[in-house]
Amino acid sequence: MNPNDTRLPDIFPLNTLGAALQKLRPPQGQFALAGPWKHTWGVYTAAARLQRVGTLMLRRRVGERGRVALELEYEKMLSGGVQKIEAAMHLAADNRLSTPVRWQWLARVLTPGGKLVANTRLEKSAAFDSGRVTVSDKSGKRVIEMPGPYTLNWALFDAVTRLPGETFDPLRFTLIDHFDQPKPDQMLSYRKTTEVPIGGRTVRLRAFDQLGQGIVPWVYWLDEQGRLLAAVSGLEAYLVEATS
Fold this sequence. Notes:
It is a single chain. This protein has one domain: outer membrane lipoprotein receptor (LolB), chain A (Clam), CATH 2.50.20. The protein is 4% helix and 55% strand. It is built from 2 helices and 15 strands. The radius of gyration is 18 Å and the shape is globular.
């Protein structure tokens, strides 16, 4: 492929990402799906025009007896400040949806000078037991009935790395969005495998769709090794910037 070729792929929704997609440099080499890794994505919005507004870092740790934890750091620029979220998710063993059994998170908004904006600090934890998720904070506890499969929106960034690159029976589950907002009747399924021009070369990608109640549909794009290169949902997109 001509290295000066900056054509956008004629594939929705990748063709909505403009020059940001052509600046992407897909990582190369092997990727251990079940091992530890750290990925950073740029956060983009197309509310007016496509622009980078923050970063998402997800670190996968593997401990004793194969126990897996995901650590998240999220920053997004706001008018007059920055939103920060930190979270730790401890996953169930051998779970296709990367389902956490317990998790905790801290969210807050800071001024450009790094000071906390009043009344923006939110710190909570959650745990699953016997078909229920209990969400706790300093004000008390709230119980969410969860009789079937479930996962968190950020945990899906890990789960999709191990999906097969071919048609499979769709995964059906309840999404817990923003760590404590249940959205039922979700479905994750295979879309297609295709070759896409990115950054001056052709990359073979496989795509998966997520549809369900209360969400804008997501499309996840992964390379042949299983790395999540792009995730797109309406006006929101995440493009990989660094992997290790």
